[in-house]
Amino acid sequence: xxxxxxxxxxxxxxxxxxxxxxxxxxxxxxxxxxxxxxxxxxxxxxxxxxxxxxxxxxxxxxxxxxxxxxxxxxxxxxxxxxxxxxxxxxxxxxxxxxxxxxxxxxxxxxxxxxxxxxxxxxxxxxxxxxxxxxxxxxxxxxxxxxxxxxxxxxxxxxxxxxxxxxxxxxxxxxxxxxxxxxxxxxxxxxxxxxxxxxxxxxxxxxxxxxxxxxxxxxxxxxxxxxxxxxxxxxxxxx
Length: 238
What we know:
- The chain has ten helices and two strands.
- By secondary structure, it is mainly alpha-helical.
């Protein structure tokens, strides 16, 4: 006869694993970010193929991380991967840009209504981003200004607390990065965009959802006129 099982005992405590340091950004991430910036600022021209070997040499890396970066950027809609041509910088027609901006405006207007109810810390963090962006504007540091500009819009959408909204917004904003960037090339356009940011951030800080939604919508509605003033012809790809 089997003896009855003994009393259950807890397993001996495990030694705590050492805290692992935060991993620095991988080479793949760095290369992806650099190539994305080259697309956004127009160094890599819309409609032109990307020569992987040449680009790898310019970045001082092997061809492999460049190839992987191009796949990521194609998934973001910034590139087309074409048989026999490799990666080509995506061309958007005027209608493409207007259609995407119209949808982004709807999404941000909806997000603005709800973001005003976010927690104090989250709103304070967005206001702090805006203050940093204002400093870059004062110094005319356009790439740094633009990166924070994008972060602010994304943060307001996240503050709405709707992951599906944030996902759709992220896809569209990624595709529109280059077009949004060229919209602030002239000093007048940049100044107007900065003034609009001041307005909707003040609405956010005051937790005025209807005003925030309206000002975000107006800000997005004003984007295409700014972009079309830079593009030589309305039907030209950008």
